Task: structure prediction
Amino acid sequence: MRDNTLNTLAYEACPQCDLLLKSEVVAVGIKAHCPRCGCQLYRPRHYSVERTFALSLTGLILFIPVNLLPLVGILVLGNAQEASLWSGVSTLYVEGLWGVAILVFLASMAFPFLKISLSLLISGHLYFHRPHRYLNVWMRTLQHLDEWAMLEVYTLGIIVACVKLASRTELKFGLGLAAFIALLLVIVMLTSSLDEYLFWRRIEALNKSNSKHNHLNR
Amino acid sequence: MSFSNKKSALKQGLIRCHQCGCIVQLSAIALEGKHLAPCPRCDGQLHTRLPNSFQRTAALLCSAFVLYIPANVFPIMIVTKFGVPEQHTIISGIISLINSGMIPIAILVFIASILVPLIKMLGLLILLWAVRYRWQRNMRLLALVYRMIAFVGRWSMLDIFMISILVSIVSSEALEQVLAGSAATAFAGVVVLTMLATNSFDPRLLWDRLGAQ
Result:
């Protein structure tokens, strides 16, 4: 059933203009672009699976302090007032803007968490050569929710909010902010180290060897 | 079997799975009712082109245009100082940033919350126009417009995130209180709808009619 893919015939198509192209081996450090529309086709990475595994493990650990510790705070009449990822969401919800609250919750907490855990699951299975029947589903989900995890944009939001507040009061930066910046770096590196093209090929190879193995056992 | 690398894959009876990127022969894929059978590599739904791409993008874009009006008319932030409420729309927020001398931040907010949504919506309009009226010139430029829109989309969430931090930090009843206004919901809607519109637009439609006339 699986022999009707033409990748064995060494063809690719541009995702943005559908031009049929002959597959070529691209060296690490080189970006392949489509000759017709100019979109980036492929950018191979060194040790993509290993790096993704290590980075997503780091990210998952960093997720705990980022969500528990306050990010920034101000001093009002001697009292410290602090903001964390969750306090923003809950304040918006209490104010009645539940739509915005849900969106902020998804974009700054739920989707980054899902993205990191799915990356960990997939790269872990690939790293230890363990086939799993849901690898396909995980990978497709990861691709779809990728752009909805917006920690980079959230960082810019923190910066603008800090500049607005800094003119009026004294700011206090918590340990949470340090963890947040570390998590941001990890996520940016994770996104660039995860080579979707390679991951799909490895998943396919893993599934194939698994079905062959089952066949022999029978 | 040999294929030309001057024509699109679909014209030669091949489909590229938009999820895993593998190439499948259309003749080897069975029909399951109205749909194609799932992709042999990733088990995702195969499409020759994204379904109803033009209509979906146009509908989402129209809704975004409509929501853009309340997003700019209504206050996005209500700052209460010593009991006196002061309402800020997106534009008046930027003006007050300029007045207090924070020019770089004002430029940043202007780009993220006014320029980017406008560019995104106008760009999508141009792309839909180009598909509808079968433009055959400046194709690489159109492809660049699509990639710009796709890249820039998420950055307009900046204002929403900034407000979510401000409301939770400045909430002491004594001196100053920041509340989010109704425009925040409308603006968040604009961002989400334009992102969905970009996702449902299939850029391959631009190239499909190339050389057909």
